[in-house]
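Hi,

I'm pasting everything inline rather than attaching a file, because the server keeps stripping attachments. The sequence lines come first, and each chain or strand is labelled.
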Amino acid sequence: MTGIRARTRRDGQAKVPPPLDVHAHIEAEISSEAVRGLGAFVFAMTRSLDEYALVSRRRDTRMVWGVGTHPGGQDYVASFDEDRFARAIEGTPLVGEIGLDGGSAVPMAEQTRTLRSALGVLQQTPRLISLHSAGAHLQVIRELHRTPVEGIVLHWWTGSADLTDEALRLGCAFSIPPVMASKSLILDRIPSDRLFFETDHPFGDRGTTGRRKPGRTTDVEERLGERLNSTTIEMRHLHWANLRKLVLTLGLLHLFPEDWRGVLSDDSLRGRNAS
Ligand SMILES: [Zn+2]
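And the predicted assembly:
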């Protein structure tokens, strides 16, 4: 099915777009039917350049695949190559996931070298970047100071209040999985126009009731909506409006599949993230 648009109804109310999940882990072999069956728009992460190569020719209408090098795996980090990374990101608006991990068996020096190399490329060629920071929050902030880039979305961030404030000063946004949507004090510090929602399926949606699946960000919409005194529909519009703003700022709209461009081009999303 193509051509799904967030049309504006005659009464001026925007049509409700489907849920949006900005960080999920999906098998590279997933069928196109299964992707459509998710009923959502999804940013799918890859863990290595080899894994990205497996999906780079897919033409999913509602899933965008990120170019990734996950810091948690020796093989993933060891196979990183700057030129190959630079070529891979030509065909997608999304990088993910990359970052640093304090609990990884990969030496921090090696992780850091890889991240610096990727950020160097991304300074020249901006992309949306889903950044991993578990157990390495200070190091990640240090690297972002060293190599400032636009388009950073810190995924499942659990850094301190001070580091959160520093990340905000650096222009970062944050993607919130269900497991941190109701309890994290960090959430009080993040302005609503820097909020994104994710499942981090199959990790970040543990503990949710019902069927866990990529794209099911409705739990986050509900819980954040309670905090922000907003309906789930308002939260969904906010989420899409935040993505739209970032995509247009970075000039990445042309790299999205048609279904995405339909939603992201909806003018009625403009201004919803003004507060
Ligand atoms: Zn992840």
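The pocket of zinc ion is lined by residues 23, 25, 45, 97, 200 (CB under 6 Å).

If the labels don't parse on your end, tell me and I'll reformat.
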